[in-house]
Amino acid sequence: MQTQTFERMESNVRTYSRSFPVVFSKAQGARLTDENGREYIDFLAGAGTLNYGHNNPELKKALVDYLATDGVVHGLDMWTSAKREYFEALDELILKPRNLDYKIQLPGPTGTNAAEAAIRLARKVKQRHNIVAFTNGFHGITMGALAPTGNRKFRENTGGVPTVGGSFVPYDGYMGDAIDTLDYFEKLLGDKSGGLDLPAAAIVETVQGEGGINVSGLEWLKRLEGICHDNDILLIIDDIQAGCGRTGKFFSFEHAGVVPDMVLNSKSLSGFGLPFSHVLMRPELDQWEPGQYNGTFRGFNLAMITAAAALKQYWSDDTLAKDVQRKGKIVEERFQKLASQLTDAGMPASERGRGLMRGIDVETGDIADKISGKAFEHGLIIETSGQDGEVVKCLCPLTITDEELEKGLSILETAVKEVIGG
Amino acid sequence: MQTQTFERMESNVRTYSRSFPVVFSKAQGARLTDENGREYIDFLAGAGTLNYGHNNPELKKALVDYLATDGVVHGLDMWTSAKREYFEALDELILKPRNLDYKIQLPGPTGTNAAEAAIRLARKVKQRHNIVAFTNGFHGITMGALAPTGNRKFRENTGGVPTVGGSFVPYDGYMGDAIDTLDYFEKLLGDKSGGLDLPAAAIVETVQGEGGINVSGLEWLKRLEGICHDNDILLIIDDIQAGCGRTGKFFSFEHAGVVPDMVLNSKSLSGFGLPFSHVLMRPELDQWEPGQYNGTFRGFNLAMITAAAALKQYWSDDTLAKDVQRKGKIVEERFQKLASQLTDAGMPASERGRGLMRGIDVETGDIADKISGKAFEHGLIIETSGQDGEVVKCLCPLTITDEELEKGLSILETAVKEVIGG
Amino acid sequence: MQTQTFERMESNVRTYSRSFPVVFSKAQGARLTDENGREYIDFLAGAGTLNYGHNNPELKKALVDYLATDGVVHGLDMWTSAKREYFEALDELILKPRNLDYKIQLPGPTGTNAAEAAIRLARKVKQRHNIVAFTNGFHGITMGALAPTGNRKFRENTGGVPTVGGSFVPYDGYMGDAIDTLDYFEKLLGDKSGGLDLPAAAIVETVQGEGGINVSGLEWLKRLEGICHDNDILLIIDDIQAGCGRTGKFFSFEHAGVVPDMVLNSKSLSGFGLPFSHVLMRPELDQWEPGQYNGTFRGFNLAMITAAAALKQYWSDDTLAKDVQRKGKIVEERFQKLASQLTDAGMPASERGRGLMRGIDVETGDIADKISGKAFEHGLIIETSGQDGEVVKCLCPLTITDEELEKGLSILETAVKEVIGG
Amino acid sequence: MQTQTFERMESNVRTYSRSFPVVFSKAQGARLTDENGREYIDFLAGAGTLNYGHNNPELKKALVDYLATDGVVHGLDMWTSAKREYFEALDELILKPRNLDYKIQLPGPTGTNAAEAAIRLARKVKQRHNIVAFTNGFHGITMGALAPTGNRKFRENTGGVPTVGGSFVPYDGYMGDAIDTLDYFEKLLGDKSGGLDLPAAAIVETVQGEGGINVSGLEWLKRLEGICHDNDILLIIDDIQAGCGRTGKFFSFEHAGVVPDMVLNSKSLSGFGLPFSHVLMRPELDQWEPGQYNGTFRGFNLAMITAAAALKQYWSDDTLAKDVQRKGKIVEERFQKLASQLTDAGMPASERGRGLMRGIDVETGDIADKISGKAFEHGLIIETSGQDGEVVKCLCPLTITDEELEKGLSILETAVKEVIGG
């Protein structure tokens, strides 16, 4: 595989090609193939972007058919047949069955664009600058989205321009099991000199992906919703990684029975790996003036075609959702065993997650890297997350076959065994 | 055409559907077709995103062929065959022939992501917070890119969080013909108490698209390059709208013989309307640590496939470039006539532009809106730009046929006649 | 008393004249006299500025003698005999006996100027923007000092310019007795994605004056010092209100055996109510370039004359310190009784404080205002503090006579009785 | 003279003691005396703080008399007899005769505190963040006042926290005689994408002191007033250095017939070198809530005593004002001669100023430093200003005797002669 082109021309900023230094040429379902023809099971899946697998055939068919008719590919935010199809599919298959009444904003096609738009709107509506985020939260790294993003790697490397307008409070479990972190949040909210400016919004992930598969309790989420409501604070759920079925329901907040004021989706929203995002908002919050937020790629019609196809294919009934729950249990059990083995071997580890968003916390980035590295040697692509990269994270396609899942888990078990063996 | 779905579900922020309130279903070359089968000549072309026309057949073929082989669609920033193909095409067809030596960063796939990345890197390299921009410049609206963007519509509506780290100096011609605005910039740079913090970078468009087709002189650009060099300031050319051949050369700065430290491209970079952007930078500026800038859609392989195809199809020789220059002259002459007619009718107007990036400044948004509105009635899509929307702007596909160009210009002439007639 | 002049000409921003709406004409020791000749016991003492009483005779003598010789009054930061006298008195009587080795910066003559200077220096030395403060901390309201100040009243009323570069963590006791808030701080410091940018400094009051007489434990302070040291964070003690003997030692941090990296003093530093402040810093932190921080009134010689006189008069031995401790106990006991009486009457209350910095927390600003109002009717000036004004605060002169102290406490008891009686 | 104490204990930030490395012990009128008994003529006068001279006898008498009666020295912002006396003197002697109707805010006692208060109020009233300042303007260095202050020395050394909410436009004459800089300002104000956010206020010095004795034209000021009025922008005149008679009238803007919305005074306001400042504002702008801006030393009664005495002594008629104008002409003529001599000797120089605020611009800091240094050797204290310290600046007491003025000018002439002679 020729890699000199990359080494010569690509910025040092590249990352994944450091962990997986091969050139990939093909991808199908839960499998990636490199230029030497070697196949890999993919537990990374575009960091949660490929919930329906690589080159999902149904979605690809819809895409190619659309191209064949010379459908509009790029139309800024003009009205197109594709956009109407997406809106209607979203309404019929997702919103109405869940009694959700939202308007849709299409910002730029990435998660960080969606976070920027939602944050700006929340500030505009409430006329307050502060956005409360939670420890280990991740919402993007453009300057607006970075304000409520916890990672020092990005926050402290902006060249002398600190982020403005974000504050952090502890996520569920951050202070140990004995403490409900919302007690602290609530105390700060009621405190006129506690240093927490009354926020326009709280932005939260129900399961933190980049933060290390931290799972918020369903009661905690419900209480958070109540606190926001009581204090006139908008609740924004960033469902960019946990949404689109990842946790076993379309929206991850459904488990908790929460109704956010705004919802962010991206990553698997197009279903095919096409850049796409939307902001859902309660209708009364739609206080934008025409054109007050824009972006060249804010209505990417190909993504809306595949997004609509994905909804029709997978969300007309609960088959996929139940299957995710079933597979999630499989991964949970296998990960628990791995955690036990590691712990027994003197490497304390624990399992956590919801649905097919699962991780093994091995407490150090070093051990996690070793496991990921060994797994790659044996044909499994799996990444680490968490503040120190200490969590081995499974984000396999939701549509992975049982056979592929088994293969991936077996490889992981081999990798762990080798790491334990030293 | 059913539009209630949009009216009910789409955020008020929508804009183009207000000027062109129909539902488009097909697009080919320089033509858009609505659901009633009505055809429109497209002088908007995705605000400069479709330089090679809608559904360009060569590019579409490359895209569909790639999909047929299950090529990798989404791979974060992993190495793929598609990425190598793009890098090599860029190197062979664009960089080497122009004696340019740049490294490539793929940030998020939109222009504002590219601006954020370049600005952050400039600050990091120079350890200075200030980025100098020019009056009427536009570089995106995420909070980082907004700092050097001039539009109050965005700047003043961020909900109580002012942008940080941008300063403005007058663009070429801003103070009238008699004054070289760079005199002022140079004086400020040398002044220890002038209020201009020594900038990390200057960011400039050689022709300002959103700002109203303001064209910088080639000597002015060359002098700007010298000033930046002498003051240890990076020169960033934002070629997002003016690049990819729009002005008659691949990079708009080639006319001036300038070699920027960084270049931003997006919009027509993929050639097919697919979200894509890159930052080019002198190799010694590539001081990123691995992973210090990221984004889920930063390596969109489909876009790289069409981008490579576009380079091969249109930039292997200078045929397209010369054709753009030829058509540019046609538009220039016709626009000059229209400007004269408007002026004679008591509506002072003037023409300006470079290549196929051209506008008629009619001095008020009201008149420009009327012209655009009348044009739409007659089957031409053309937008306005400038601080008050006072410039009717032609960004037709570079590949527009002479017949289509003629048709579009004729419609515009009819529209102008009707507006003059009252 | 003629008050129309004030009502007509003075800004609405005035506050104390709303609680104490008389015109004062004379002041001696712990007594203020209004224009009608009525005398008041002063438990406010310039909000802690008059530790040695109004018009302290020894200090006044030094001041008048200096004026008689035409000593330099204002000399920017030029060297004067008065400055040398102050520096030497500070060194001999305060620093050396406590084994403290500090350099002195004279910023503008107010506490907020000192906070601005210290914060800026900390950022400069550590090349980090973040300053950690504690809930309910108060350090001034100019924009730099406001960043680590908790009060929404100021923070949220800056006209659309949020403060930049401050973060808050919970003060000792903020989360209840069972939780050591430094556990949380320490966890955040070690967390690469917790949202707390690695701080340049932590700024803390050992007893929070404006925040409501919140008293940090001595072990908590000592542990804080250790955490700062271990994490390369500067520890700044804001001793503006708690210093100059208020807690029973010259510096309030002496109780804990802590040695801060920087110390802020102001308020009672001149001893005579003259505007004055200094920043003390470990010598290696003095990385200022000449002139990098300035201010017209940064070397107010009259204040240095009285400051030196105060040190000589009161800090040549421990007489005053011991007397403060003795009187502090008197106030503590009497306040405890008042708190019990209030609690018994259904108004839950508690006493807290250190030395002669003491308060009764009555839990609502309404009750506290009533007590303060009744006290004023009976001839006692006493203010409230805390986030909601819920703490009746005693900051009487340290030099108050036992008779005056008794009188003041008696009036307060009468006031409480009346409030209980309804 | 013992200076080791300073060298050991004082922060490196010290400046004036580097130019004038002696220890001063006495000061009278326009004369300073060092500990060796050497006398210096003082053309610095506390950087404009001692308009009425050191230890002005009338003011000292008022001060000592007040102290003798145990008048209130420090009373936060409580009403005192001293404050009423000051308010009434200001009203009767200054405001009413000039038909000015202002309310008074007493912020912290320094100029930067006044600037912070005025800026915050302007933002609050107009609900806009931007404050427009002018090139080479200086308004203080706390973070809020620094936003509209031009000096890189301070702006670029805030440790990674850029100032927020200030923009700069060119001061009168900045772009040469042929260009009215207000044309540019007006164009930016009317430009929706020029990058200048609509400002809450413009803040300007009529003669820039720190900026290098730059003198704005009276018509320019009047036009600025009109532009502000037409664009709903508050006009804040920072008269901290140019006010209190320095230019030949009490307020420097009287020359232009301008009525600012707010006025800042400090420096010579107390008349005796005591820290003091006020903000004057049109009554309808007084939209402060009680306590929304505070500060321990905001009502320094001793300063109000001397301020009232100064008004009574010097502003009951126009004797002083006329005398300032007369002496200003003397300095002007002598400075013009010096400028000619320097120019003739190959060191291009020019004179400028208004009243007794005058400078010789010698174009390099090096020459200016030499002149100042030689002058000091011969017994004259005179400082430099301007972005590069290139302007030798005369701010002698307004009450200087003709003999002292002559002596100072003679020394300066000697110094210039020596510098020319090499």
TrEMBL record, chains A, B, C, D:
Family according to the record: Belongs to the class-III pyridoxal-phosphate-dependent aminotransferase family.
Pfam (any one): Aminotran_3
NCBIfam families assigned: dat, ectoine_ectB, PRK09264.1
UniProt cofactor(s): pyridoxal 5'-phosphate
SUPFAM superfamilies linked: PLP-dependent transferases
Transmembrane keyword on record: no
Keyword annotations: Aminotransferase, Pyridoxal phosphate, Transferase
Gene3D superfamilies found in the cross-reference section: Aspartate Aminotransferase, domain 1, Type I PLP-dependent aspartate aminotransferase-like (Major domain)
Protein name (Swiss-Prot/TrEMBL): Diaminobutyrate--2-oxoglutarate transaminase
Superkingdom, taxonomy of origin: Bacteria
Pathway(s) it belongs to: Amine and polyamine biosynthesis; ectoine biosynthesis; L-ectoine from L-aspartate 4-semialdehyde: step 1/3
Top class in the EC scheme: transferase
EC number(s) given by UniProt: 2.6.1.76
GO molecular function: diaminobutyrate-2-oxoglutarate transaminase activity
